[in-house]
Every structure is written in structure tokens, then in C-alpha cells.
Amino acid sequence: MTDLPDFAARLTALTDGRASTPRVKDGVMTLALDVGGLAPEQRDGLAAAIREGGLTVPGVAEVRIAMTAEKKVLKILAVASGKGGVGKSTLSANLAVALHRLGLRVGLVDADIYGPSQAKLMGSEDQKPVARDKKLVPVTGVAGIPMLSMAHLVEPGKALAWRGPMVGNALSQLIEAEWGDTQLLVVDMPPGTGDIQLTMVQKHKPAGAVIVSTPQDLALIDATRAVSLFAQAGVPMVGLVENMAGYACPHCGEISDPFGQGGAESTAGDLAMPFLGRIPLAIDIRRRSDAGDPPAAGDGPYADAFAAIAQKVADWLKQPA
Ligand SMILES: Nc1ncnc2c1ncn2[C@@H]1O[C@H](COP(=O)(O)OP(=O)(O)OP(=O)(O)O)[C@@H](O)[C@H]1O
């Protein structure tokens, strides 16, 4: 047995402040529960615990819980590498497309302020975002994916001579834009592990990070550094992707390994993080990327390779936080 004020106090602790103050009238207890961001089983478990507790209050014969419409939670998936030029932007664009094909409402942010490439990769170079209520409205890339890149805001070819805080503000404008009903923002992070990256992960708290590396030792050492940046900021690792793995000769089909083989998979093992898959070094990937036509949007082995990685990422995102 417990009285109503006692129960109200327990309710706050039990629900982490998600429940309104309970009211009792004619034997019926009513309260509202904010279920935003909870997995269905967490939501149901919480409701059952509230009901059970509510029925111990004297005079209560029934507990009615109004679950508030799920609050939209925009998750951020950071795609990062310790080293430039390893294919982080290529993977971000194709992962966004492949996740979209799996049915997720995906948006794409090019956080590579000094070397933006997503407008080109996603065929949206000629678009300019507008601002509504002081928020940027994303432009549309391949497959109708909403996206924003610094390339949409600055003149092509013009160098940005910005200091850290200005860059931080620009990144926030891209991330806090008008994303509508987008569920997941794939963020192509700037290369490296400096202050900007750290501020970015601390301020915008990605739900998870995907690290890209080539199989080369040097790239893998840098990838390890990127992993530790996210670990410091408490961002969970989704896993490691090996890009430019094995080169298939377009003439004879022979596979060679210009950057070695299996390095990323064993590094992932050393770091106790999942290995998400490998993308081959293929002329077609570069050609299509340059033409603003990501291979993940089509069919064939490269689309399949990106789709397999996207499926692992989607499964990871489904896990309760
Ligand atoms: N799997 C691949 N096969 C062939 N070419 C690739 C592959 N991945 C990336 N490339 C090419 O390598 C170059 C660098 O790729 P990308 O721009 O994605 O790397 P990045 O890590 O984002 O670089 P930066 O640090 O400059 O942002 C591009 O020309 C791209 O088309």
C-alpha cells in the first residue's frame, strides 16, 4: 500500500521524469507518459510497471495511461576516418542511399567543411538551400534524399579561411536544419581527429559511428585514433568498413590487393568492434561517384556490397539505446 504523493514520487524515478502527475477520480487513475525514443518493449514494460504500482494506491481500481505521440528523435550516424582520401564521403553517400532503399527516412549532412564533396556525389550541385524561420531547408539529392553540404552555401572553388568556432557554427546550422520527418542523419565527418571533430561529437551526440579505412597499415593506425575520439566522447561504435579492398582488373578480372588484405577486419577484431564489410577498389565506383550517380542506387555487386553494410547498420540502429 502506498498513498498518491508517494506513488507520484516513485513514478518520477521509475519513468525518468516521463510521466505527468497522476490524478485519481472515481477510482480511476489517469496520467500521461512521454514514450518518445523508447523501444516498443521498453514502452510496454514501463506501462505495465506503472499500472502495477498505480493499483497499489488506495481507492484506485483502474489505471489509464495516455501515451503521448512519439516524439521525433533524429538520430545521427557519424561516418568518419582518421585519414583523408580513404573513401569516407563515398561511403557516406552510398550508405545514405542504401539505408533509404531499406525504407529508413534518411538525410545526409556533409560536415567536411573545408573539402565538401557530397553535392557532387549526390548530384545536387546546382541547388541552393533556402532558410525558413532561421533554419536551413535541405536540398534534394539522389533518390529524393534531403541533404545539406557546405558546398551548397559557398561559391564553388572558393577557399574557406575560417577559424574553429565559425566552423562549429556552420556545422550546427547544417545539423539543426529543418529535417522534417527524417529519422536518421548520415553525417560525413571532416577527416582527422581534431577539435572540430571532438566538438561535433560532443555537441551533436551521434547515436553511433562508422569508421572507414583502407587496408593499409597507416590508414588503420589513423582509424584507431578516430575510434578513440568517439570513445572519449562516449559515442558507440557501429563498426569498421574496409574500403578500396582488392582491385578487380576490369580487363582480365584478376583480383589484386594494392593496399594489402584483411587489415581492417583484424583491426576491428583487435578493437573489439564489429567489422561491417568491404567495398572493392573499382573504377566503376569512382566513375559513378564523380558523375553524381552513387552505385548503391543501382544494381550489381557494388550496390549489393553497400546494401549488406547498410543492413548491418540498420540492424544496429534497431537495438534499444
Ligand atoms: N571503393 C572505391 N573504388 C574506387 N574509387 C574510390 C572508392 N572509394 C573512394 N574512391 C575514390 O577515391 C577518392 C577519395 O574518396 P572520398 O572523397 O570518398 O574519400 P574521403 O575519405 O571522403 O576524402 P576526404 O578526406 O578528401 O574527404 C574519390 O575520387 C573517390 O571516387
Question: Could you characterize the architecture of this molecule?
Answer:
This protein has 321 residues and is an alpha/beta fold. It folds into 2 domains: 4-68, Fe-S cluster assembly (FSCA) (GMP Synthetase, Chain A, domain 3, 2-Layer Sandwich); 75-318, 3-Layer(aba) Sandwich (Rossmann fold). The protein has 10 helices and 14 strands. It has helices at residues 4-15, 40-54, 88-101, 118-121, 164-175, 195-204, 217-232, 263-270, 283-290, 301-318, and strands at residues 23-25, 28-34, 62-68, 75-80, 106-110, 130-132, 135-137, 139-140, 146-149, 184-188, 208-213, 237-248, 255-256, 275-281. Strands 4, 5, 8, 9, 10, 11, 12, 13 and 14 form a 9-stranded mixed beta sheet that branches. A hairpin with a 6-residue loop joins β12 and β13. The two termini are 33 Å apart. The mean pLDDT is 88. Residues 81, 84-90, 112, 115, 117, 191, 243-244, 279, 281-282, 285-286, 289 line the site of adenosine-5'-triphosphate.
* Overall pLDDT confidence: 88
Number of strands: 14
CATH architecture of the largest domain: 3-Layer(aba) Sandwich
In the predicted model, the low-confidence regions spanning at least 5 consecutive residues are none
Structural class: alpha/beta
The whole-angstrom Rg is 23 Å
- Report the helical percentage: 25-40%
Percentage of residues in DSSP E strands: 15-25%
Whole-Å distance between the termini? 33 Å
Helix and strand arrangement:
Blueprint: H1 4-15, E1 23-25, E2 28-34, H2 40-54, E3 62-68, E4 75-80, H3 88-101, E5 106-110, H4 118-121, E6 130-132, E7 135-137, E8 139-140, E9 146-149, H5 164-175, E10 184-188, H6 195-204, E11 208-213, H7 217-232, E12 237-248, E13 255-256, H8 263-270, E14 275-281, H9 283-290, H10 301-318
Parallel strand pairs: 2-3, 4-10, 4-11, 5-9, 5-10, 11-12, 12-14
Antiparallel strand pairs: 1-2, 6-7, 8-9, 12-13
This protein binds adenosine-5'-triphosphate.
Adenosine-5'-triphosphate (ATP) binds at residues 81, 84-90, 112, 115, 117, 191, 243-244, 279, 281-282, 285-286, 289.
